[in-house]
Structure formats: C-alpha cells, structure tokens
C-alpha cells in the first residue's frame, strides 16, 4: 500500500488553486468590460466640470512674501539686482574654429571649418559671417576672420606642417 502524504495530494491542491485564480480573473475581466460600457459621453462632462470648479490656481500676488523673503537665502533678503555689463566692455571670446579644408575656384573661395564649440562642419564662402565674425579672406593654407578691430587667422594643418613639430 502507498503511504498517504502531502506530496501525493499536492497536484490536486495546485489544480484547485489554478481553477480558483482563473475564476477570479474571469470576474475581473467581466467587471472591467461593464465599467467601460457604463462610461457615456453625458457622464464625462459632469466629472470634468466638478474638477474644474473645485480647483482654481492662486494669483501670483499670493506668493509675494516668498519673493520678498527668499527661503534659501541666509538673511532672507532678495538677491541684489544683476549688474548689466555694456556690450563694448564685454569680454570677446576667441574664435573656436578649426580649418578642415579649402576649396579655391575662379568663382568662389570656400573654407570648410569645424566649429569646436558644437563639433559641426560649416562651409563658408568669402564674405559670409559666423558668430559675428566675417570671413574676409581664404588662401590655400588658411582663412582670416574679422570682427570689429579684431582679426584672427586659422591655418590648415597638413602632414607637412605636422612633421615640423
């Protein structure tokens, strides 16, 4: 005779649990379908209207004390007004370009440059502008840019130039 133990009846217990879970799942799906059928267009505006009437945003004047007494300042006073630097006194940043190539034809002189600030390739003809700098001349070995009184020359780095370094 076989001994009776939990292991012998485990399959029956697991089957019963699976049937129970399948029944619960069927009921949930049935309830979900009924809820979707109950949503009619007439019922939705009432819900939207209720939420719109309940909440209205406060006016900016309500927060005036927060502006007058900033929370994260040690003495709780507003920061001083920023100083405006005139454009003439502003420090001019150097031109961050690298000359990648030059094309000189009878019709045009073109410099192919890489903008090092965003790593984009640009094709500029003589007379074009980039970031306020005018391309005033293009030669076989370099390009000259000018902004106001400043001028800057960028040269084409070739293998011949690199060997000398």
Structural account:
A hairpin with a 2-residue loop joins strand 4 (129-130) and strand 5. Helices cover 33% and strands 25% of the residues. The radius of gyration is 38 Å and the shape is elongated. The model has no long low-confidence stretch (mean pLDDT 79). With 165 residues, the protein is an alpha+beta fold. It has 4 helices and 7 strands. The strands form 2 sheets. It has a 4-stranded antiparallel beta sheet, with no helix packed on it. The protein folds into 2 domains: 1-81, no CATH class; 97-159, SH3 type barrels, CATH 2.30.30.
Q: Any descriptors?
A:
165 residues; alpha+beta; SH3 type barrels; 2 domains; 3-stranded antiparallel beta sheet; 4 helices; 7 strands
What is the number of beta strands? 7
- Tally of separate helices: 4
Label the overall shape: elongated
Count of spatially separate domains: 2
* Main sheet makeup: 4 strands, antiparallel
The percentage of residues in β strands lies in 15-25%
- Please give the radius of gyration in angstroms: 38 Å
Q: Terminal Cα separation, in Å?
A: 96 Å
Overall pLDDT metric: 79
Class by SSE composition: alpha+beta
Uncertain residue ranges = none
Helix content: 25-40%
Write out the strand line-up for the largest beta sheet, numbering strands in chain order: 4-5-6-7
Following the backbone from N to C, one meets helices and strands in this order, namely HHHEEEEEEEH
């Amino acid at each position: 005779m076989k001994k009776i133990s939990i292991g012998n009846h485990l399959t029956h217990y697991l089957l019963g649990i699976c049937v129970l879970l399948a029944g619960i799942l069927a009921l949930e799906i049935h309830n979900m379908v009924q809820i979707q059928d109950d949503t009619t267009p007439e019922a939705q505006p009432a819900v939207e209207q209720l939420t719109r009437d309940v909440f209205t945003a406060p006016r900016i004047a309500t927060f005036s004390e927060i502006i007058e007494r900033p929370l994260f300042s040690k003495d709780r006073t507003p920061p001083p007004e920023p100083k405006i630097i005139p454009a003439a006194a502003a420090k001019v940043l150097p031109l961050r370009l690298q000359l990648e190539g030059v094309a000189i034809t009878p019709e045009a002189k073109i410099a192919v440059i890489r903008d090092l600030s965003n790593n984009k390739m640009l094709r500029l003809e003589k007379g074009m502008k980039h970031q306020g700098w005018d391309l005033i001349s293009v030669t076989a070995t370099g390009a000259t840019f000018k902004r106001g009184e400043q001028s800057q020359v960028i040269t084409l780095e070739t293998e011949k130039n690199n060997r000398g370094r």
